[in-house]
Design brief:
Length: about 350
């Protein structure tokens, strides 16, 4: 098969972790005799520095003509404490999501046996936890009308959702639940927000069409609590953009490290595969960041964008082997730790030798 991918390393640790994922992608494509072609594109703070735009038009064209996008991370501290910055790296990520129509962000939360002791939760609470959070990604407060009034002294962001946007993401939630353990938790704040009441209304209309799936409704504050109290009770969770952003950061740490969880963003045009974590600028260039979330994002790319399940599985097996054998970066190491590049080499070699 011909695999045509766009590679967007972005900022901070982005280039280092994407480099490791690319080693693994190359090993897998070689092993399974695929033809790989890839091209790098600029995005984020580095794109602002070089061309003044965090998601330049030629990067968008590259994404549009590719079959999948492998993305690193975006963000730079020089913008974080400057609320007046005219253009911010994160706008590049949002523009990419919007222009590619990536309305669904799939974030699987899985635990690794060899890392359970690193979880902030007790082993018996997390052992076997396995759920998927489906976050709506192109609507809600991120994209609603925003602005200032009263001479700049009043600010507003609007949380807007249309029935159509809610329906398509819930439909995806039901499809995932149907392939998993047949439970869909719709997370909202319907006791307060009108937009959430529309979510719940639409969900209640759709639920009877999926009689084999149990639909459960949960307020977001309660969901935040349940994720750390009973993570095993979730199967598929579906929620709006902002709630999903917050809940998936929370959910990711119960696995033992933020550096482990991958994600897929899918929708109308090319899908994007990226780690959940950010650009971790303090570690940039030090060869210490954990590349696993990005490597697992590459596994999701094989599975979701190309339907190559065996290729995805061999990457997952290689990652599990690296953890079982202790060939891991400092954030999850017990004794001896390894560099980002060494872990990338080890995983790519494991794939080649298999
Ligand atoms: C994420 C990130 C982004 C978001 C930021 C970097 C804009 O936190 O992908 O979860 O809020 O969506
Ligand atoms: Mg986030």
């Amino acid at each position: 098969m011909k695999l045509n991918i766009a590679v967007l390393p972005g900022d901070g640790i982005g280039p280092e972790i994407v480099e490791q994922a690319m080693k693994v992608v190359k090993a897998v494509t070689k092993k399974f005799n695929h033809e790989l072609s890839y091209e790098y594109g600029l995005t984020g703070a580095i794109a602002i520095d070089e061309v003044g735009d965090p998601y330049p038009e030629n990067t968008h064209e590259l994404c549009m003509k590719s079959d999948a996008v492998l993305f690193g991370a975006i963000g730079d501290p020089k913008f974080d404490n400057n609320p007046k910055a005219p253009v911010r790296p994160e706008q590049g990520l949002l523009a990419m999501r919007k222009k590619l129509g990536l309305y669904a962000n799939i974030r699987p939360v899985e635990t690794f046996e060899s890392l359970l002791h690193k979880s902030p939760l007790r082993r018996e609470l997390v052992e076997g936890a396995d759920f998927v959070c489906i976050r709506e990604l192109t609507g809600g407060i991120y994209f609603g009308e925003k602005g200032r009034k009263d001479g700049g002294n009043t600010a507003f962001d609007t949380n807007t959702y249309t029935r159509e946007e809610i329906e398509r993401i819930l439909k995806l939630g039901y499809e995932f639940a149907g392939k998993r353990n047949k439970k869909l938790t719709v997370v909202d704040k319907a006791n307060v927000l009108e937009s959430s009441r529309l979510w719940r209304e639409v969900a209640q209309e759709m639920a009877p069409n999926y009689p084999d799936i149990k639909t459960e409704y949960m307020f977001v504050d309660n969901a935040a609590m349940q994720i750390i109290q009973w993570p095993k009770n979730f199967d598929v969770m579906v929620t709006e953009n902002m709630f999903g952003d917050i809940l998936t950061d929370e959910a990711s740490v119960i696995t033992g490290s933020l550096g482990l969880l991958p994600s897929a963003s899918m929708g109308i045009h090319t899908s994007v595969f990226e780690p959940i974590h950010g650009s971790y600028p303090q570690a940039a260039g030090k060869d210490i960041a954990n590349p696993i979330a990005t490597i697992l994002s590459a596994a999701m790319m094989f599975e979701y964008a190309f339907n190559l399940m065996e290729e995805g599985k061999i990457i997952r097996d290689a990652v599990t082997a690296s953890m079982t054998e202790g060939y891991v970066t400092v954030d999850i190491a017990e004794g001896e730790s390894f560099k980002t590049s060494q872990v990338g080499d080890w995983i790519a070699n494991w794939v080649e030798r298999k």
